[in-house]
Amino acid sequence: MKATDWESHYVSGDTPWEKGEPSPGLVDFLETGVAVPGQTVCVPGCGTGHDVRAWAGAGLECLGVDMAPSAVRMAGERTDRRVLKAEFRCMDFLADPVPRQFDWLFEHTLFCAIQPDRRPDYLAAILRWLKPGGRFLAVHYMIPDTDGPPFGTTPEEVESLFSPHFELVRQWVPRSYPNRTGLERCYLWDRSIVSKKD
Ligand SMILES: C[S@@+](CC[C@H](N)C(=O)[O-])C[C@H]1O[C@@H](n2cnc3c(N)ncnc32)[C@H](O)[C@@H]1O
Hints:
- This protein is α/β, with parallel strands linked by helices.
- Helices cover 28% and strands 24% of the residues.
């Protein structure tokens, strides 16, 4: 299957995932105060940076990573306009060397964007980028599609992939954008208890 040319999507404006605001599920999560100002977070596949700006607004030190140069440029410009502080880098989250490890990783529509046969690489990247004892918050798209992106997943697949490496703190159906209501599921994973596999 041909890899998606994400940069072309941004250049042509063909970005149906772009909602102009952060994930509603993330906004509600940040209001709980579980993520503490001063902690660090990386948002891989950050697009134009709405979610990064939500984390920055909650006082965390943020790095947004995306492989599409135009997304990274737009993310930086929009963040500067909002007078928020966050760093953005053009990187391949799955393949590039890790610049530093983070207290938090936040996933929102990267897992469903990559080819399903690269999900083991995605898991390996999450384990590399997260500090020991860090937390991984994911908003997964629970759709049946196999001809993506977006590529769907199931609770069974998500749990069997991540549970050998993390303790599941909580999972829930979040508030969503209107066209995704009921189709998303949040998972909060903790890496304090590291399994024998790692
Ligand atoms: C469906 S878009 C979602 C963007 C953003 N999370 C949002 O919800 O608006 C997927 C994003 O992941 C980026 N991406 C795909 N594969 C990537 C990789 N291996 N490393 C970094 N970014 C990647 C794409 O460039 C694109 O911006």
